[in-house]
Amino acid sequence: IRAAADAWACGAAALPKPWQPLKPVLPMEGMRNVLITSALPYVNNVPHLGNIIGCVLSADTFARYCRLRNWNTLYVCGTDEYGTATETKAVEEGLTPQEICDKYNAIHADIYRWFDISFDFFGRTTTPHQTTIAQDIFQRLLARGFLLRDTVEQLCCEDCQRFLADRFVEGTCPFCSYEEARGDQCDKCGKLINAVELKNPQCKLCRGVPVVKPTQHLFLDLPKLEEQLEPWLEQSWATGDWTANARYITRSWIRDGLKPRCITRDLKWGTPVPLDGFRDKVFYVWFDAPIGYLSITANYTEQWERWWKNPEQ
After folding, report:
1. What is the pLDDT of residues 86-111, one digit of tens each?
2. Which keywords does the record carry (predicted)?
3. pTM value > 0.85
4. Is the pLDDT of residue 147 over 90?
5. 20-133+288-309: CATH topology
6. Which fold has domain 155-212?
């Protein structure tokens, strides 16, 4: 309190001069370098106050605080644009997925600009950099033996003549009987669902009853990571600042044992899978979207790896 009072008595003239980083903002030797991201807002809606309060505003507040502390700060964000939610919105509005993304990306950018959110860069995930980085990560996983191939039973709508991605299927949760569960997860009980496990499934496009057919997909071999993951989690729980909810969910996954997780989908709108036998598929958005943080930074600066592959700074 005494130090605060002394600093206040000295007045604004005693404050250090504000740090003005060069453009683009890059890590600087001898400075505290801070990279901030907001959770990427999904592109198929108009953001409302709750969206802004939920992630964008808190990150913006922290970015402003960091700049006031004269920390070298980069704050990036952008719209998450691939996946079935975009396809669903495109069907609803009679537009192509690309047109939907262009429309709502502009709306998002305008709203955040109106709120004076202090992004250094606001980008999007439908870019060549996203394809390049996502496919590179995929090839590294493949080369290191972290991918599995498996034939799975998947719901197919014969009226629409397509395999149905998770968001195009709705039915009753097999665990809690919630009647509006999606084909990948139940929003009521939170359990992950294989779409073929849904009771009374319906195609969301035509309301027809889908049939089960086999199709081949690629999976992340998550069980291979359990032995390394458990000691890392123990250390992170002891030293980090995890919420009770995050601890509970993570513990339940470890307790039940990690399962292989599918990373491909029978869709057209997404990052193409660069592997023979799977070139008519795209990456599942939950594999693809987190890579958007890297690709958005890459669209901001060619030297993006100085932020993402630079633990010393």
Report:
1. 988 898 899 999 999 999 999 999 99
2. Aminoacyl-tRNA synthetase, ATP-binding, Ligase, Nucleotide-binding, Protein biosynthesis
3. no
4. yes
5. Rossmann fold (3.40.50)
6. Methionyl-trna Synthetase; domain 2 (2.170.220)
